[in-house]
Amino acid sequence: MDTENPGAATVEELTTKEAIAANNWCLIESDPGVFTEMISGFGCTGPEVEEIWSIKADAFRHLEPIHGLIFLFKWLDDKPAGRVVTDRSDIFFARQVIPNACATQALLCLLLNLQHEDIDLGQTLTDLRNLCQDLDPECRGHRLANEEKIRKVHNSFARPELFVVEESTDFIEDDCYHFVGFMPIKGKLFELDGMHEGPIELADIDQQQNWLDVVRPINEARMERYSVGEIHFNLMALVSDRQRCYERKIQMLVNLPSQLSHADRQAEIANLRSHVRHEKEKKRRYRKENIRRRHNYLPFIVELLKQLGETGQLMAICDKAKDRSYLCKPSKDTRDQQPQ
Questions:
Q1: What is the pLDDT of residues 3-42, one digit of tens each?
Q2: Is position 178 annotated as part of the catalytic site?
Q3: Does residue 307 have a pLDDT over 60?
Q4: Domain of 278?
């Protein structure tokens, strides 16, 4: 523990909290900075996660190569959108056997099916893939549940709680949100959802076709199934590290022959260096945000409320907040005048 910053904690210290039992997994925030740091925590190098703000093709082009998509949506107990495949031992797929693990499970299913020169899985994930090679999806789910390092990285993003509420062992509750993965594997588009018995084969991908053009209509259709006004979706892309991509392009322009003129080459190098600075700033922001996520602000908040109560200021602040809340509420007459 950092003695100069008592709210900060390491991965190991955070996972010893009483709020997280030995075999429990915490909820994970759908944020690219969180997922990118989890990848690094697993020991994997080369990929990162970017948020997708639009389903249109232009929102994807500047991020390519995109290795997979992670989709967060309100879970419905519906039939799968395609054929559930149970005879593909060449696809890494694990059933979700523990609550709250769907974020890490969706991410791992993408990573462990990746074969790309930009990606180095590292020792932990390589060992996990080798150990699970001859296991069925159910056993793989249990093996993943018992992978201590992965659980520690996952639970390092647990939020501090004043009170521990015993969680239900049921997976699905009302307004439950769920992570699934989408990726191309050997000419077909698959959905990797741990709530099913196997990967879901969604579509064929032609040799000259970009797999993103196949998956976009499927995601659009899924979003349209929900009621009007439902905005609780989140789409993230698993991509090659953007900083590395830009730095590699700079090295190619500097060291290899190019058809560009000297002036155009220098302009392109300057543009790429600007992108590198942006990526470095983004990673710095991710680190700062994740430190804040892990920081335990509860002792400060409790002490502040205690001091306000002892000095007689707390009730006045509460009354002021109640008055302000009352003023913000529309009156009955105003509500009656609103269109139905």
A1: 444 444 444 443 344 434 446 898 888 999 999 999 999 9
A2: yes
A3: yes
A4: 242-296
102 is catalytic: yes
* Mean residue pLDDT across the chain: 85
The answer to whether 67 and 178 have CB atoms below 8 angstroms apart is no
Catalytic residue among 67, 178, 196, 245: 178
Looking at the 3D structure of the chain, how many domains does it have? 3
Per residue in 253-269, pLDDT (tens digit) is 999 998 899 999 999 99
Q: Which residues contact 142 (CB under 8 A, 6 or more apart)?
A: 97
Number of residues assigned to the chain: 340
Kind of pairing, strands 66-74 and 188-192?
unpaired
Q: How far is CA 203 from CA 112, 147, 187, 213, in A?
A: 21, 33, 9, 11
Do 203 and 188 form a contact (C-beta atoms < 8 A)?
A: yes
Whether residue 60 lies inside any domain: the answer is: yes
Q: Which of 102, 109, 132, 245 is catalytic?
A: 102
Q: Tokens standing for 13? A: 């210290």
Reported as type and span, the H/E element at residue 70 is strand 66-74
Q: Is residue 4 part of a domain?
A: no
Q: What is the pTM of this model?
A: 0.80
What CA–CA distance (Å, rounded) separates 46 from 121?
Answer: 8
